[in-house]
């Protein structure tokens, strides 16, 4: 079996097509169920963010599993496989491991060193666990990935400065406005991205932070956190008429603001310009809004270009992160190999214990005169002798597992101790 990642992102395909192949939180369980239903997939985690949609699977047969996953994504997104198949990228085994570790470390994000992607990977793993979609292989892989992300941010400077999509969005808005200090800002959406944007706005000195969401209680909770104000969805026209900038990032599957909703607000605004920053994928704002007089519309592509301008310092950290990723990938490989050696180690110890018990039974008559304390001493002594004799072979089996030397050693032990029927 192989670990395989099958993915796509808005850098590999047109944004409007990519939007159709993203999965918000509510759709992920259904997508995981579809992946689990594939005949050649035994485990699955789906990482779907504004930057990427990636299916991490354990595949029994690579080519068959690839086709099944591609077709499952097509069915879920109502897109013909041939419309996006050429945009897919695939990594397997060591390359898949290294890819996930680099993603979690933030070196494969639109904002280099993205501090939010580690949480997104962790959340995707948790959802897959809750849905019963993962087993020992992906559990081990994702645990190592999250640990790699933590090390990358603590041991290197990859996250120094602006290193998240939400903070970059606020900085981009500030650059276009001159500053967000004292400005009235409307935030739509209170997920992790919306929450981070609202927090960043307050830190940047925004005057009023208006918060809107389809769930009023969640809007109230975020507004309380940032000393903001709640705006009911029915009051959006009023809020759009008075705000300087709109930042939106919801999980909606279609646009929530089109030009017909904005036009009345623009009439009330007069000559006051409006900046709209839409970092949702799929987009929350109809692209036609950008053609309205007085409106500047920025989306995820604009954010990517903006973020690239400030990454020179963090780019110098890529080599250090890649070295760390290589180190963590090797640590992961050793643990996988050690786990693979576990059945043989258990078989060796079981065979040795059988011999010990057999010998104790053979000498039972001679030990008849011993009391309970003496019998316990004999039992303990023979167990200790076995443990010492087996210690070195056990360590070498685990340490060298997965290497040519380890394979030769394992085969020799199977042959010498007739373990072929015990370790499978």
From TrEMBL:
<dbReference type="InterPro" id="IPR015896">
    <property type="entry name" value="4pyrrol_synth_GluRdtase_dimer"/>
</dbReference>
<keyword id="KW-0560">Oxidoreductase</keyword>
<dbReference type="InterPro" id="IPR036291">
    <property type="entry name" value="NAD(P)-bd_dom_sf"/>
</dbReference>
<dbReference type="InterPro" id="IPR015895">
    <property type="entry name" value="4pyrrol_synth_GluRdtase_N"/>
</dbReference>
<dbReference type="Pfam" id="PF05201">
    <property type="entry name" value="GlutR_N"/>
</dbReference>
<feature type="site" description="Important for activity">
    <location>
        <position position="99"/>
    </location>
</feature>
<dbReference type="InterPro" id="IPR000343">
    <property type="entry name" value="4pyrrol_synth_GluRdtase"/>
</dbReference>
<dbReference type="GO" id="GO:0050661">
    <property type="term" value="F:NADP binding"/>
</dbReference>
<feature type="binding site">
    <location>
        <begin position="49"/>
        <end position="52"/>
    </location>
    <ligand>
        <name>substrate</name>
    </ligand>
</feature>
<feature type="domain" description="Glutamyl-tRNA reductase N-terminal">
    <location>
        <begin position="6"/>
        <end position="156"/>
    </location>
</feature>
<dbReference type="InterPro" id="IPR018214">
    <property type="entry name" value="GluRdtase_CS"/>
</dbReference>
<dbReference type="InterPro" id="IPR036343">
    <property type="entry name" value="GluRdtase_N_sf"/>
</dbReference>
<comment type="subunit">
    <text>Homodimer.</text>
</comment>
<feature type="binding site">
    <location>
        <begin position="114"/>
        <end position="116"/>
    </location>
    <ligand>
        <name>substrate</name>
    </ligand>
</feature>
<feature type="domain" description="Quinate/shikimate 5-dehydrogenase/glutamyl-tRNA reductase">
    <location>
        <begin position="172"/>
        <end position="305"/>
    </location>
</feature>
<protein>
    <recommendedName>
        <fullName>Glutamyl-tRNA reductase</fullName>
        <ecNumber>1.2.1.70</ecNumber>
    </recommendedName>
</protein>
<feature type="binding site">
    <location>
        <begin position="189"/>
        <end position="194"/>
    </location>
    <ligand>
        <name>NADP(+)</name>
    </ligand>
</feature>
<feature type="binding site">
    <location>
        <position position="120"/>
    </location>
    <ligand>
        <name>substrate</name>
    </ligand>
</feature>
<keyword id="KW-0627">Porphyrin biosynthesis</keyword>
<dbReference type="GO" id="GO:0019353">
    <property type="term" value="P:protoporphyrinogen IX biosynthetic process from glutamate"/>
</dbReference>
<dbReference type="InterPro" id="IPR036453">
    <property type="entry name" value="GluRdtase_dimer_dom_sf"/>
</dbReference>
<comment type="function">
    <text>Catalyzes the NADPH-dependent reduction of glutamyl-tRNA(Glu) to glutamate 1-semialdehyde (GSA).</text>
</comment>
<comment type="similarity">
    <text>Belongs to the glutamyl-tRNA reductase family.</text>
</comment>
<dbReference type="Pfam" id="PF00745">
    <property type="entry name" value="GlutR_dimer"/>
</dbReference>
<comment type="pathway">
    <text>Porphyrin-containing compound metabolism; protoporphyrin-IX biosynthesis; 5-aminolevulinate from L-glutamyl-tRNA(Glu): step 1/2.</text>
</comment>
<feature type="binding site">
    <location>
        <position position="109"/>
    </location>
    <ligand>
        <name>substrate</name>
    </ligand>
</feature>
<dbReference type="Pfam" id="PF01488">
    <property type="entry name" value="Shikimate_DH"/>
</dbReference>
<dbReference type="InterPro" id="IPR006151">
    <property type="entry name" value="Shikm_DH/Glu-tRNA_Rdtase"/>
</dbReference>
<keyword id="KW-0521">NADP</keyword>
<feature type="domain" description="Tetrapyrrole biosynthesis glutamyl-tRNA reductase dimerisation">
    <location>
        <begin position="321"/>
        <end position="419"/>
    </location>
</feature>
<dbReference type="GO" id="GO:0008883">
    <property type="term" value="F:glutamyl-tRNA reductase activity"/>
</dbReference>
<feature type="active site" description="Nucleophile">
    <location>
        <position position="50"/>
    </location>
</feature>
């Amino acid at each position: 079996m192989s670990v395989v990642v099958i993915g796509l992102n808005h850098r590999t395909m047109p944004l409007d097509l990519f939007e159709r192949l993203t999965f918000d939180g509510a759709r992920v369980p259904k997508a995981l169920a579809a992946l689990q239903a594939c005949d050649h997939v035994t485990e699955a985690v789906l990482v779907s963010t504004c930057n990427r949609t990636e299916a991490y699977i354990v595949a029994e047969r690579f080519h068959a599993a690839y086709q099944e996953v591609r077709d499952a994504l097509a069915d879920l997104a109502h897109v013909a496989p041939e419309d996006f198949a050429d945009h897919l990228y695939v990594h397997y085994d060591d390359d898949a491991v290294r890819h996930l570790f680099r993603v979690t470390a933030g070196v494969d994000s639109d904002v280099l060193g993205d501090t939010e992607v580690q949480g997104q990977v962790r959340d995707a793993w948790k959802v897959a666990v809750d849905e019963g979609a993962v087993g020992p292989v992906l559990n081990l892989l994702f645990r190592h990935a999250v640990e790699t992300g933590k090390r990358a941010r603590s041991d290197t400077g990859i996250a120094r400065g602006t290193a998240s999509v939400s903070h970059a969005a606020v900085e981009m808005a500030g650059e276009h406005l001159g500053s967000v200090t004292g400005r009235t800002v409307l935030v739509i959406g209170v997920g992790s991205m919306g929450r981070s944007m609202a927090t960043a706005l307050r830190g940047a000195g925004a005057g009023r932070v208006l918060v809107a969401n389809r769930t009023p209680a969640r809007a109230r909770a975020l507004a309380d956190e940032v000393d903001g104000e709640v705006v009911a969805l029915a009051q959006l026209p009023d809020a759009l008429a008075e705000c300087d900038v709109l930042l939106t990032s919801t999980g909606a599957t279609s646009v929530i603001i089109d030009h017909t909703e904005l036009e009345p607000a623009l009439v009330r605004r007069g000559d006051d310009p409006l900046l709209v920053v839409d970092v949702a994928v799929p987009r929350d704002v109809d692209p036609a809004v950008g053609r309205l007089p007085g409106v500047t519309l920025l989306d995820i592509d604009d954010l990517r270009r903006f973020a690239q301008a400030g990454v020179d310092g963090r780019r110098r950290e890529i080599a250090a992160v890649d070295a760390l990723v290589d180190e963590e990938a090797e640590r992961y490989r050793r643990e996988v190999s050690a786990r693979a050696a576990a059945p043989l180690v258990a078989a060796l110890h079981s065979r040795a214990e059988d011999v010990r018990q057999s010998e104790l039974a053979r000498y039972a008559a001679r030990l008849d005169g011993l009391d309970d304390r003496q019998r316990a001493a004999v039992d303990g002594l023979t167990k200790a002798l076995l443990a010492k004799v087996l210690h070195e072979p056990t360590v070498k089996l685990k340490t060298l597992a997965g290497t040519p030397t380890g394979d030769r050693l394992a085969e020799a032990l199977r042959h010498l101790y007739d373990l072929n029927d015990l370790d499978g």
